[in-house]
């Protein structure tokens, strides 16, 4: 296998060079952030390892880890806690989703300074709840009415967030002179020709797309930086102003979609999608209990893009702030139930295992030990990768992408 330096540089070669440097900087923060930024390594290594026990095919988000669950507003206006990142989504063995999530538990808990035993207990809890939910064959959902403990507090706090709060963080000025803030470290100025083309494109999207918000005009746009794995993709933020409601604004995110980094290493025939963005939102809509509000696709200058509203309620639980082990227990338990529920919801769809097959997999306890064993070993591999990466990064070997 090629050296780590070569593998990382080759994967990031097609991304925006100056932004890739910011991605490497983010990945150098800690081993967990490195893991978030190297989904392709995970699947490449998984394909080369001894195979996991057989599991039914399922629609998976592909990059599931404990920070890819969060709050969002559904198109029914309710706030939910659910899986919330589907850039790497595809059809794969159901166990692939669990082994990546369990690996993330081992890496994150080590990074947070928790004992190995507690991480192991959490990994067991995740697989136990995941299996039990599958075995019941009935998907569950979590909103402020059904949430418990820290997740309930998290959702209630998210529900109180307003667009006024979001605008305060992202914009400067008042009323007619409002504009996107360039003091935000996640915002970058666009060159004038590109900004002009982008604004014209979104104006056309508003007029012609059935998913677009009516009666809005574009009044600003910037390049937007977000996430870890997605840093380096083309991503833009637009400020829209209502043309018939005074002082009403929307923030729209437009993110480039590329092929799933897992696809080359998953030995499963994939569906043909018209565009990568269509793959992302189609799988998202079938796996989430309620689709997110204002979710759409577009094509700009030959690239496929996902369009979605930037929501004041969209957030992820910060595990660094969770000091109580019981709080973590409730969060991991909920995440496991949601993972199984997403697979049940999409069961039997276009190649996925049927509900009965997923239920039988949940009843079978024979595969869980192999998943935990692989996740433990791979967490050690990631830590070794991270140390090697950090050494090379500090020595300037990632100075050019």
Automatic annotation (TrEMBL):
UniProt xrefs under PANTHER family: DUF2252 DOMAIN-CONTAINING PROTEIN (PTHR39441)
Pfam family, one: DUF2252
Protein name as catalogued: DUF2252 domain-containing protein
């Amino acid at each position: 296998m090629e050296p780590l330096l070569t593998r990382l540089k080759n994967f990031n070669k097609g991304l925006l060079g100056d932004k890739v440097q910011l991605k490497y900087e983010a990945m150098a923060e800690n081993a967990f952030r490195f893991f978030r930024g190297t989904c392709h390594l995970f699947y490449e290594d998984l394909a080369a390892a001894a195979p996991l026990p057989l599991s039914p095919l399922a629609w998976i988000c592909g990059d599931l880890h404990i920070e890819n669950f969060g709050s969002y507003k559904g198109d029914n206006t309710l706030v939910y806690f659910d899986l919330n990142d589907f850039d790497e989504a595809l059809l794969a063995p159901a166990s692939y989703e669990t082994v990546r999530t369990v690996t993330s538990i081992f890496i994150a808990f080590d990074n947070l300074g928790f004992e190995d035993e507690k991480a192991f207990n959490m990994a067991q809890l995740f697989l136990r709840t995941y299996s039990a939910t599958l075995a019941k064959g009935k998907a569950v959902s979590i909103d402020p009415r059904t949430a418990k403990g820290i997740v309930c507090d998290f959702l209630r706090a998210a529900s109180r967030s307003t667009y006024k709060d979001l605008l305060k963080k992202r914009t400067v000025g008042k009323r007619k002179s409002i504009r996107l803030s360039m003091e935000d470290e996640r915002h970058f100025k666009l060159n004038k020709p590109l900004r002009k083309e982008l604004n014209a494109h979104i104006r056309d999207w508003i007029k012609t797309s059935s998913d677009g918000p009516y009666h809005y005009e574009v009044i600003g746009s910037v390049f937007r930086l977000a996430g870890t794995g997605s840093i380096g993709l083309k991503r833009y933020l637009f400020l829209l102003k209502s043309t018939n409601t005074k002082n009403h604004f929307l923030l729209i995110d437009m993110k480039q979609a590329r092929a799933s980094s897992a696809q080359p290493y998953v030995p499963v025939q994939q569906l043909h999608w018209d565009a990568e963005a269509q793959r992302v939102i189609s799988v998202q809509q079938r796996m989430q209990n309620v689709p997110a509000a204002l979710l759409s696709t577009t094509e700009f200058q030959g690239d496929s893009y996902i369009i979605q509203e930037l929501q004041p309620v969209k957030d992820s639980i910060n595990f660094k702030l969770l000091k109580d082990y019981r709080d973590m227990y409730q969060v991991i338990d909920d995440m496991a139930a949601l993972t199984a529920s997403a697979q049940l919801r999409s069961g039997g769809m276009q190649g996925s295992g049927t509900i009965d097959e997923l239920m039988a997999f949940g009843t079978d306890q024979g595969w869980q030990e192999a998943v935990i064993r692989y996740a433990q070993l791979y967490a050690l591999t990631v830590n070794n990768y991270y140390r090697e990466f950090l050494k090379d990064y500090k020595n300037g070997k990632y100075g050019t992408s």
